Amino acid sequence: MLIDSHCHLEYEGLVEDQDGVLDRARSAGIRGFLNISTRRSEWERVVGTAARYPDVWASVGIHPHEADQHADLGEAALLEATQHAKVVGIGETGLDYYYDKSDREVQQALFRTHITVSRKTGLPLIIHTRDAEDDTFRILEDEMGKGAFPALIHCFTASADFGSKVLDLGLSISISGIVTFKNAQDLQRVVATIPEDRLLVETDSPFLAPVPHRGKRCEPAYTADTARFVADLRGISIEELGSATTRNFFNLFKKAAA
Ligand SMILES: [Zn+2]
Ligand SMILES: [Zn+2]
Questions:
Q1: 96 CA from centroid of ligand 2 (Å)
Q2: Nearest ligand to the C-alpha atom of residue 59
Q3: 241: which of 73, 167, 219, 231 fits an S-S bond (Cβ 3.0–4.6 Å)?
Q4: Residue 219 has pLDDT above 90, yes or no
């Protein structure tokens, strides 16, 4: 039993055949799916898909790539969108200085808006961070000081140092198929040491297909390949990894458990 904590079911590659995609995943033992938003124009579809399937939940938020187009998104709009019963998380939000598709100041301001809404609703923040460890940590630490909020670093690829710092802040960490890549030895070492009660798995599909599907379009069924790899890294069974990560998902995304 596994949960894909991060997939984009509205993206090209998955949206054309959501029924088939979800059925293949269920056959591979995936029992739940968190359908992630990246821009406001997508929220209705992301939430609509979650409303259609009992095992799909939704997040609302703005990806850092899209920050410039949402510079005036107020707290109120985000807050209102979280009211839907199937919206269980906020994001993906965060900072991406690798692609720098949006102004860094705007990314940071919008990240803080998401944090405020997370604190107000108690819904966990789904954080995307790339080449932006220092600013991500600085903002998280600063905002935690104003009042705690639940949060997850998605598709974790950061350093061991960043990992231990965010774990100290109380965050959870979700692992994508990148961990299965040959050149991911540093990441593999970090993943082996994440506390068992803070670990989640995801695909970030349609991107980042794990080995042995690397290079192909990724889909939620491949959560099982990543989970098997992570279980091997940690020297535990896939069943044990599955029950721990599923328990962690529902502990963090409490609204999905309700
Ligand atoms: Zn992301
Ligand atoms: Zn994503």
A1: 12
A2: 2
A3: 231
A4: yes
Centroid of ligand 2 to alpha carbon of 253 (angstroms): 17
For the residues of 196-238, what is the DSSP string, one character each? GGGEEE---BTS-PPTTSTTSPP-GGGHHHHHHHHHHHHT--H
CA distance 78 to 121: 11
**pLDDT at residue 224, rounded to an integer:** 98
Ligand 2 centre distance from Cα of residue 127 (Å): 9
Per-residue model confidence (pLDDT) at position 258: 81
Question: Nearest ligand to the C-alpha of residue 38?
Answer: 2
Give the pLDDT confidence of 181-214 residue by residue, as tens digits.
999 999 999 999 999 999 999 999 999 999 999 9
If you measure from the C-alpha of residue 126 to the centroid of ligand 1, how many angstroms do you get, rounded to a whole number? 9
DSSP conformational letter for 173 = E
Point out the ligand nearest to the CA of residue 203. 2
Cα of 254 vs centre of ligand 2, distance in Å, is 20
Tell me which ligand sits closest to the C-alpha of residue 202.
2
Q: For 110-113, which contacts have Cβ atoms below 8 Å and span 24 or more sequence positions?
A: 110/62, 110/64, 110/67, 110/70, 110/71, 110/73, 111/64, 111/139, 112/139, 112/143, 113/73, 113/74, 113/75, 113/78
Per-residue pLDDT tens digits for 41-97: 999 999 999 999 999 999 999 999 999 999 999 999 999 999 999 999 999 999 999
What pLDDT, in 10s, does the model give residues 4-16?
999 999 999 999 9
CATH of segment(s) 2-257: 3.20.20.140
